[in-house]
């Protein structure tokens, strides 16, 4: 299992799930129904998450979901606001919402 995408917008997460499944890449959505718990949990812990069932598909899945990052794999980065470590495909901090600067 490998997390490939996380966003507050469930429709977008489901769209990505459909896209991967259309290419035969197994994946599941977690936290689909956790929005009702918002307020009791930190908000980002309630965000829907898209997980690959087989992380060997990660490269192919990343190319499908993030074609603009295709030619050059983005380096991982550290959030300037909360110091969270983020993988290169994320342009926004899942923890505090800060955008990547570079
Ligand atoms: Zn952050």
């Amino acid at each position: 299992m490998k997390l490939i995408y996380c966003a507050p917008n469930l429709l977008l997460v489901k769209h990505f799930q459909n896209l991967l499944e259309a290419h035969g890449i197994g994946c599941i959505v977690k936290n689909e129904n956790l929005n009702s718990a918002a307020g009791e949990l930190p908000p980002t812990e309630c965000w829907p998450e898209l997980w690959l069932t087989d992380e060997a598909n990660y490269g192919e899945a990343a190319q499908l979901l993030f074609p603009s990052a295709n030619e050059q794999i983005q380096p991982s980065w550290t959030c300037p606001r909360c110091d969270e470590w983020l993988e290169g495909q994320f342009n926004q901090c899942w923890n505090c919402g800060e955008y990547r600067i570079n």
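Residues 10-22 form the longest helix (13 residues). The chain has a mean pLDDT of 86.
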